[in-house]
Amino acid sequence: PRGSGLMVWYQKFEYAVGHWLQKATEHMIGCVLCSPGCFSLFRSYALMDDDVTRKYASKSEEPMDYIQYDQGEDRWLCTLLLQRGYRVEYCAASDAQTFAPEGFNEFFNQRRRWIPSTIANIFDLLKDYKNVVSVNESISIWYIFYQMVMLISSILGPGTIFLMVVGAVSISFNIDTKVS
Asked: What is the pLDDT along the chain (180 residues), one digit of tens a residue?
């Protein structure tokens, strides 16, 4: 990510963790769930697949469609490719740059789009796991299990951290839990 300031520094760290650890892990045990738009290169025959192109071009009609299709287009495209049997890979040797949000409001709006889209697309992949495992040789039932654990921990993680902070404040300062 390019730019300056605290928000960009945070995003540089986040991109490093996300790409060096998470994407590399996904690549090794199955395939990558999302190739971010600014870091992507796709084969034209995969993009020209009728089922991918037709569904990717469809209009959002339901609220869940809006979240899944329009809030994170790169993730939606990768979900469609995986459901059709294509493999999305990670290449550590590649190099790309993108401009990151420098202010909190822009960053918050970006994440307000990305997080629900991520959950919706992973949920769609998990819901269709029998088909995905049968048509995509890179995805096993263990990979689906890994993604399910990651989804559950992503949902429970923030609440767990909040409860731990409340407990720590309560114990450290001898304050009632409700007050803390």
From this structure: 888 999 999 999 988 888 888 888 999 998 999 888 767 888 999 999 988 999 998 888 888 888 988 888 899 999 999 999 999 998 888 777 888 899 999 999 999 998 999 999 999 999 999 999 999 999 999 999 999 999 999 899 989 999 999 999 999 999 998 888
* 132-138, long-range: CB < 8 A, 24+ apart: 132/82, 132/83, 135/83, 135/84, 135/85, 136/31, 136/82, 136/83, 136/85, 136/86, 136/87, 137/85, 138/30, 138/31, 138/87
Choose among 138, 37, 142: nearest CA to 82: 138
pTM of the model: 0.84
Tell me which residue of 97, 81, 100, 98 sits closest to 89, measured CA to CA. 81
Q: What is the DSSP string of 29-87?
A: HS--S---GGG----HHHHT-HHHHHHHTPPP-SHHHIIIIIS-HHHHHHHHHHHTT--
Longest dimension (CA), the chain: 63
Residue 179 identity = V
